Amino acid sequence: MNRVLRAVAALAASCLVATTMASPGRAATTHRLSATQARAMHAVIASGQAAKRTHVLDVCRSRRLACQAQLLAADGSSTPLSSFTPFGFGAKDLESAYGLTGASSRTGTVAIVDAGAYPTIESDLNVYRRQYALPQCRRSTGCLTVRSYDNGPERKPATSERGKEIEEEVGLETALDLDMASAACPRCKLLLLQTPPGDAVFGSTRATHASEDHFATAVQTAKSRGASSVSISYGFPTDAYAAGGSPARKMNVRGMAVTAATGDSGYNGLYPYWPEVLPSVIAVGGTELSRSPHGSWHEGAWDGAGSGCSAGLTPRAYGQPVGISALCNGFRASADLSAVADPMTGVAVYDTYAPADNFPFEWVVVGGTSVSSPLVAGIFARAGVPAGVHGPNTIYAQPASAFRDVLAGGNAPSGVCSADGVSERLCAAGVGWDGPTGRGTPKGLVTFQ
Predict the structure, then answer these.
(1) pLDDT, tens digit, for every residue of 343-362?
(2) Number of Cα atoms under 13 Å in the Cβ half of residue 32
(3) Are 261 and 336 in contact (CB under 8 A)?
(4) C-alpha triplet 189, 192, 159: angle, nearest 5°
(5) pTM (2 decimals)?
C-alpha cells in the first residue's frame, strides 16, 4: 500500500472531532482534525484523492454572497473541516508548483478589495506567514495598510446583527486573498481596501450597481496609492451599466495589473460575472492541482472554473488576439490564464474572525477562483509589473513557452458551448488557449515579465 492509500485509509479509520460552532441566528458544528489527521489529509489533497473522503461547501453561493470561495468539508457533513495545523497546499507548495522557489522577489504592493471589516486580520495574516517562514507583515512597518475603498480610514466592525453575520462569513474571503498574495509575493506590501459589508450580498439592481461602483472606486484608490496589482475575488451580475458605465470606466487603468476571478459555476455563457467580463481586466480561471509521489506537479481544468464570452464587448485594445476572440464571435473571451482553484486540491488558509460567541475556524482548506486571482496578482507584483500593462495585453504578448499549458478537463458537458453559438474551446481544455484555463498557468516569473 503506497503512502497516499495509507493516508486515505488512516483518515477513513479515524474519527473526526465535532465541535459546536454558533453563528448569529444559527448553530452548527465544525469538524476539527487532529494533527495526525491533518497530516494524513494533506497527503490526500496533494495526491488529488480528497473526493474519496470530503465534499465541497459553496459557502458564498449558499448564502447569496458575491464572493468566489469554497470550503472543504468532511464527507456527509454540512460544516467545514478545520485544524490547529494546516492541511491544504501551503505557501511553499505553491512556490514549488508555479516555479517560484528561489525566484527573486520585488517589493511592490498587492492591493486586495474585499467587503466588510476584519479586525483580527493582522494577527491572522501573520500566523499564516509565520507558518511558512515568510517575513512578518504589520501595519507598524508599513507592510500592511488597511483603508476604506475610497481611501478613507479602515472600516470599523459592523454593529448590526446582519452586518456582523456578513462580516463573519466573508472574513474567510479576506483571509484567503491576503494569504495567497503573501504566498505569491512574500516581500510585497499588502493594501487591503474594504467596501461596506452589504456589498458582499446579492441584492437589487440598484444595490448591485452601488457595489460595483465601490469595487471600481477601490481600483482607482489602489492606483492612486501606487499598487503594482489589484485583485477582486467577487463577481456581480453584468448589465449595460456594469459593462459600459461608471464601474467599467473606473476599472480601465494602465500601469497596474487588475485581476478578477472568473467564478465557480463553470461555463458562464454570454454574460460572465462583472468585473471579469471587462476586456480591461485580467480574467483568472482555475485548475485542479496535484503532486505525484515523485514530486512532479500536474494540473487539469477545474470543472467549476468560469469561462464565457462577453457579449457586446470587444477586446482589440487590450491585447487579446483576433484568433481567440473569434471563438466568441469577435467578443471578449475569458479566461486569460489560471491557477489552482479546485477545493479538492485547495489551499491552507488561517481565519479566526468571528463574533465572540463563535468557534473560530483556525486552519481550513479553501478553493474557488478566489484562490487563483490573488495568487496571480501576487506573482505579477513579484515579477515586476510592466509600465505598459493594460488589461491582459502582456499576457497575450508572451510566447506559449511562458505558460504551462493545461490539456485536460473542462467546465461544461459537450455541446453546451456550441449550443450558445460559440466554440467548444470555451468549455474544454486543450492545446493552446481554452476558456477554463486561458493560456495556461504560471511558469515562474517569466510568465509575467
Answers:
(1) 999 999 999 986 434 456 79
(2) 13
(3) no
(4) 150
(5) 0.93
